[in-house]
Amino acid sequence: MFRSGFLILAIALILVISLPLAAEDQADVTVIVTAERTAQPVSESIATATVITAKQIREGAAQNVADVLKMVPGVTVQQNGQTGSLTSAHLRGTATSQVLVLVDGQRITSAAFGGAADLSKLPISDVLRIEVIRGPASSLYGSDAIGGVINVITRKPSGRKVETRLGGGTNDRMSRFVSVSDGGEKMAWKLTTDFPAYGGQQSNSDYSATDLSGRLDFNNLKGWELSLKANDYHDALGLPGPSTFPSPNDRQWWNRTSFDLSANRALGAGRLELNLGSMNQKLHEVNPDFFMLTNIDGETETADAIYRVTRGRQDLVLGGEYMTESYKDVEGGSVQADKSITNSALYAQDRLAINTSTDLLIGARLDDHSTAGSKITPRIGLNRAMGEKTRVRASYAEGFRAPSLVDLYYNNFGTVGNPNLKPEKSHQYEVGVNTMIGKDTMDLALFTNKVADQIVWTSAATPGNPWAGTFSNVSEARQQGVELSWDHSLTKAVNLCAFYSYIDARNQTTGARLPGIPYNQAGLTLAGKMNGWNTALTGRWSTDRIYGGGVKVKAVAVIDLTLTDDSQKSVAHYITFRNLTNAHYEEVAGYQAEGRTVEVGVRTNW
């Protein structure tokens, strides 16, 4: 398998010719907004950050946000099987519950679902870019950001456009997307629909989803810029279960409905931004083989205000937030009492240019959490230019994660929550360098992170009840490692992107590796143009992963190839080969990933 994979990769290296970046994508590459809650060039960010642009998404074989993240250094993606199944991301070896996931700045992460987000439920057809911040971001975003932040940013309406995508492939895969927009000077609107479907490569692994979104922007309403966004996503899928414990009749239905209103205007020397958000997420699962029924209803409501001001060499960000999350749960016929948590926060961050080459950042946030109490999370960092093309950075940051509603109150089949849990607390040190040498752009980061009072599930299984247990603050985790990304123009026509990350993630209490986190991961992407066809070859590799009981998931190399014919201005045909070498692998022990598949389709833009 490895020989055939590298042979195909070598052939593609000879054939691929690159496509130059468009102006819109160049802007996406250089500017990031999530790291400091204000626009900042990536190379000048205090935190280590990666931006995946719309162009890179179009070129690749990704089916959802999770697939895109597999090519980001320091990110480990774990998918429970095939398309549509539960998918989580770990940043620098932290738990998935320690990663905050946002869509257009609104949190998808929910305390009602264990404080984690299922990335398989985030389609990519309307994504402008994805920003990934590694390292604690609690000084700006509060709880759940110990590992970092993933912010998915969708497209704004621009001009009068109709965009479509229609494709089909093996295993009854279907891609269907339509977007209609009108970007007027005073008012702009957009409607999008996305209907992915998948028949499955094994029994009871089918998946279908409906994603509907609308957006209305007012560009100048008495000095205000207003934006109203709404989204309704729902899917249905089979859950075949692991090979060791199959569930041939387990079915799941998920629904997410969200509304978001934002307004901003100039105020004094700065700009004021106000945001209101509401999100409801529902999970319904039926497993007749094991007489199990699950109905979880989670509601998140947020309100925040941000004031940004630039004065000479100083950038100041001030903000306040209020959030409430509620939880309703029915398990196996038993109804759990409704629970909720609230959080209020104030934060401030000051970035000051000490001189023409050095920026100092100091920030802190105060959270008042209804179950975790009051927490202050500071951050300090430097970014210094060393000549015209090299910048170095160093930072120290603290973070925390409040126990989720599941951690605190779950009660079913002998597994119970623990209302006395303490919040998790982290301390991270990081140094990095970003440099341009000729046709090469490189970024290197070294980090160490410790998480105290980590919350884990502690088994109390008995012969009559193997599910018995509770959640406890019993361990201290430590993650340390290296991340390297490299972008190289082989010629005027050829571009190569590669990354490597080494992560040593351990339970300090036991000395054991944290489950599912490989020591080494690497990836390579070639994007090009040949005889009117845009060509993108993507390869990713990771060493083995260890799970509970010492179960090992072996090392894997996976290669994808996408060809897009955009010789016509408004129509682009494409063909995508996923898992080109038909590698047999698992990302989670017992859950077989999909083998080789082919998808053929067409995109239009009118």
The oligomeric state of the chains shown is: single chain
CATH architecture: Beta Barrel
CATH class: Mainly Beta
Terminal residue distance = 42 Å
Main sheet summary? 22 strands, antiparallel, barrel
* Helical stretch tally: 6
Q: How many domain regions?
A: 1
State the helical fraction.
under 10%
Strand content: over 45%
The CATH superfamily is: TonB-dependent receptor, beta-barrel domain
CATH topology: Maltoporin, Chain A
List low-pLDDT spans. Answer: 1-29
- Large-scale geometry: globular
Strand tally is 38
Overall mean pLDDT: 90
Judged by helices, strands and strand pairing, the structural class is mainly beta
User: Which radius of gyration do the C-alpha atoms yield?
Assistant: 23 Å
Describe, in plain words, how this protein is organized in 3D.
The structure is a single chain. This protein has a single domain (2-605), classed as Maltoporin, Chain A, CATH 2.40.170.20. The protein contains six helices and 38 strands. Strand 16 (251-267) and strand 17 form a beta hairpin. The chain has 606 residues and is mainly β. The chain is globular, with a radius of gyration of 23 Å. Helix content is 7%, strand content 60%. The strands form six sheets. The protein has a 22-stranded antiparallel barrel. Strands 3-8-9-6-7 form a five-stranded mixed sheet.
